[in-house]
Write a structure and sequence with these properties.
OB fold (Dihydrolipoamide Acetyltransferase, E2P); 26% strand; 544 residues; alpha+beta; 4 domains; 15 helices
Length: 544
């Protein structure tokens, strides 16, 4: 049966999402837990994994496109299945959405009483489950309840603050009604989809639902609006009753209350608006429920005149910015590096080399007429020779195989106005230092003038990124896939070193090797660096 996958709500304030990258294509097999896509929210770009198995039959939002939460993102089903009815909005086929798959999943692991409780909910009763508020969240802890049993709940009210594996986030209600049951007390934890609360008409007995509930479908809340229209809930629990317990005159006289962990009671919309206006939330009186800051408080806020004294400096600057459309190069860089960072298990090995001999070697080499080599040329040559002795580091990872390259093509990262390009010095191990220097200079010039051909940027088996000329002492890089490693080269620094038991002035350089753990084990990377150390600290050996 076809399963409709909707745009997920990956953050507490997310209203819409943009597909940054699809990691699966139409026709691909999908396993439960596979990463379908990278979704850009209002806070971060996050991985979105599949909770279903099957074949990806349809992609509803292309890369770079944006859609609202709960709008069609993709369809998963059996290979060759007819989904035309779903795409055409046929009412007989559109009842195969995400909730169907989640209900089937929950049914397989829950006991019979749970299934019966979920199926026989009294009219208007809504089961609220522990939400998945981050891409890696498996369970959540209730940090604070902002509502208590018996309270009236309006759509958009903050029910609780939930502590995830990444942050403490506000969780708002998507329904209206009365809070009938709290499934987790403050400080208690539970898995995603466990019972969090029950909302419904005031006075409804839900003890049987709570006692028989072990795992509810994550989409239970989303079905509720059809069963309990907002108008009915508001009529049963008028909002005016809540206001009567805390008069407006009292609310506006003092700033919003602060929780024990220092968080201010504020709605997500008000918080966002305050950030845009540059207003300190601690100074805004809250007129919402229990003194909570809401949208109108921020819109109507004016700093008190007493805050400005004679002779006191008051900033009067205006926030300003320019927007520049992302170039195709910038988009390509972002996509490639994101795929690398999140697909290749990076680890880093850092070393510090003595550069005294290398400095003397370069000075002598450059004394030859019409000859000039750089430290980067020495490093590229040393890497090429070391890679011949360690083919595992000169390897490439593919889905079904690992390729150990016998040739050495070294990519040299070059900064250009639009970003970064990596032209390739081919057969670097067979070239002399002057030849490598000439090749790098030629390729770098072409890169800055946007004259590189596709062939000059393809085929690297290893990459060198050097920021030493910018005064950077140490840094790490993201692997240029499908390569297995990249070397980050820092500045040569004059510093005290110990030589023959004495502290003397020396020159050292720090390097960091980023490795893909799928192909390069720690010991393998360490042995490569030992070989590299021999060449760089004694560069005359490269001429033998």
């Amino acid at each position: 049966m076809a399963i409709v996958v909707n745009m997920p709500r990956l953050s507490d304030t997310m209203e819409e999402g943009t597909v940054a990258a699809w990691l699966k294509q139409v026709g691909d097999k999908i396993e439960e837990g596979d990463i379908l896509a990278e979704i850009e929210t209002d806070k971060a770009t996050m991985e979105f994994e599949s909770f279903n198995e099957g074949t990806l039959l349809h992609i509803g939002v292309q890369e770079g496109e944006t859609t609202k939460v709960d709008e069609l993102l993709a369809i998963i089903g059996d290979e060759g299945e007819d989904i035309s009815g779903i795409l055409n909005g046929d009412s007989n086929t559109t009842n195969a959405p995400t909730e169907v798959a989640i209900e089937e999943k929950a049914e397989a692991v829950s006991n019979s009483s749970t299934s019966e409780a979920a199926a026989d909910l009294p009219e208007g009763v809504i089961v609220v489950t522990m939400p998945r508020l981050s891409d890696t969240m498996e369970e959540g802890t209730v940090a604070t309840w902002l509502k208590k049993v018996g309270d009236n709940v309006e759509e958009g009210d903050i029910l609780a603050e939930i502590e995830t594996d990444k942050a403490t986030m506000e969780f708002e209600s998507f329904q209206s009604g009365t809070l009938l049951e709290i499934g987790l007390q403050e400080g208690e934890s539970a898995k995603v989809d466990a019972l969090l609360a029950i909302i419904g008409p005031a006075g409804t007995d839900v003890s049987g639902i709570a006692s028989g509930f072990s795992l509810a479908p994550a989409e239970t809340e989303k079905k509720a609006p059809k069963e309990a229209p907002k108008k009915q809930s508001k009529a049963e629990a008028p909002k005016q009753e809540v206001k009567a317990s805390a008069p407006d005159t009292k609310r506006v006289s003092a700033p919003a209350p602060v929780t024990a962990n220092g968080r201010i009671y504020v709605s997500p919309l008000a918080k966002k608006l305050a950030e845009e206006k540059g207003i300190n939330l601690a100074k805004i009186p809250g007129s919402g429920e229990n003194g909570r800051i809401i949208k109108r408080d921020v819109e109507n806020y004016e700093p008190a005149a007493s805050n400005v004294s004679v002779g006191k400096f008051v900033p009067s600057g205006q926030e300003d910015f320019d927007e520049v459309d992302n170039s195709q190069m910038r988009k390509a860089i972002a996509k490639a590096l994101t795929n690398s960072k999140f697909s290749a298990p990076h680890y880093y090995l850092s070393v510090e080399f003595n550069m005294e001999n290398a400095m003397a070697f370069r000075a002598q080499f450059n004394s030859i007429p019409d000859t000039k080599i750089s430290y980067n040329d020495i490093i590229v040559k040393a890497c090429a020779l070391a890679l011949k002795q360690h083919p595992q580091v000169n390897s490439q990872w593919f889905a079904d195989k690992m390729r150990l390259n016998n040739h050495v093509h070294i990519g040299v990262a070059v900064a250009v106005p639009d970003g970064l390009v990596v032209p390739v010095v081919k057969f670097a191990n067979e070239q002399t230092l002057p030849q490598i220097g000439a090749a790098v200079k030629n390729l770098a010039g072409k890169a800055r003038n946007k004259k590189l051909t596709p062939d000059e940027m393809q085929g690297s088996t290893f990459t060198v990124s050097n920021l030493g000329m910018f005064g950077i002492d140490t840094f790490t890089s993201i692997i240029n896939q499908p390569n297995s490693a990249i070397l980050s080269v820092g500045n040569i620094v004059e510093k005290p070193v110990v030589k023959n038991g004495q502290i003397v002035v020396g020159n050292t350089m720090k390097l960091s090797l980023a490795c893909d753990h799928r192909t390069v084990d720690g010991a393998t990377g360490a042995m490569f660096l030992q070989t590299l150390k021999g060449y760089i600290e004694n560069p005359v050996t490269m001429l033998v």
